[in-house]
Amino acid sequence: MQYAAVVAAASLALGGILVFAGDARSEAASAAPAHQQNAEARPGQEHFRWAGRLARGQQIEVRGVVGDVRAEAASGDQVEVVGRRSGKHGHLVRIEVVEDENGVVVCAIYPVQRGRGNRGNGRGEGPCSGFRGQPVEMNDVDATVDFTVRVPAGVRFAARTVAGDVEATGLRSAVDVATVSGNVRVSTTGTARASTVSGWVEATFGETDGEDMEFASVNGDVVLRLAEGVGAQVSARTVSGEIRSDFDLRRGREDRENGRFHIGVGGEATGTIGRGGPRLRVNTVSGDIRLERVRNREQGTGNREQGTGNRE
Questions:
Q1: Residue 175 lies in a domain
Q2: Which of 54, 110, 146, 258 places its Cα 20 to 30 Å from the Cα of 180?
C-alpha cells in the first residue's frame, strides 16, 4: 500500500473521530525490557516476537500503521506479540517496545521522508511518538506489519492501526480497538470499545465497567451483541441506514418486526437496556445498526456468521 496516502488519511482520522485511549502514558517511558520480557527484532529478519507477564488490569497495546492486528486468548498467563513484516521496504520498519506502570505498548516505527522529522509516521501523540523513523529519500514506502497477540485473562487489550483489520476474539478482558481503513471484530466476556472510519464494526461483550462506551463507523454497519445482564443507556444514530434492536428503543414512531424494534432510515433511537448504567453510543453515517441479545453460552465465542449491509 502507498504509505503517503495512508498517512494523509491517518492525520485527519486520528485527530478527529478516533480519539485513542491510553495516550496518558508517559512518552519518556523506558523501552528497556524487563526480566520477564523476550524481545527480538534482528536486522534482516521478517519476524518480531515479544513475550512477558503482565498483572491483571495492566494492558498490552499494539500500535501499527499498515497491517492487520489479531488477538486471541492465551492458554497461560504470558502475553505474546508476534509481528510479521512484508513488502518491498518491510525491512525498514522498526518495532519498539515501551513499558510503564500501565503495561506494554508495541510500536511499529515506519521510515520517514528525509527532512520531515516524525511527521510521516502517522502515530500522533502518545507512547510511540518519541521514536524517530529511519530517514529515506523515497516518497512512498511499501511495507506492512501484521501482528498476532495472545492475551491472558484479566489483561486489557488495545490496538490501533491505520490501514488494516482488527480482530480480537474469544478474549476474557477489556478490549479497546480502532482502525481508520478496515473492519473490526471483537468478542470478549469483558467490556469493549471499537471504531473505524471505513469498514464495519461487530462486537460481542459481556460487561460494562461504569464508563461510557462508543462503537462507531463512518462508512459501514455496526452490529452489537450484548450478553444477558448487561445494562446501559443506549443512544443509536445513523444518517443513511436503519436501526434494528432486540431491545426496546424508541424514536417517535417505531414498529415491531419479527419480534424486534425496527426504526426506519435515518435518525436516532434511545432506550434503556437492563437496569441501565453507563452511556452506550452507537453511531454510523452510512450503514445500519443492529443490537442483538446473546445468550451467555454464546458470549465471547466469536463464531457468529457475517451479516449483510456494507460488510463483506
A1: no
A2: 54
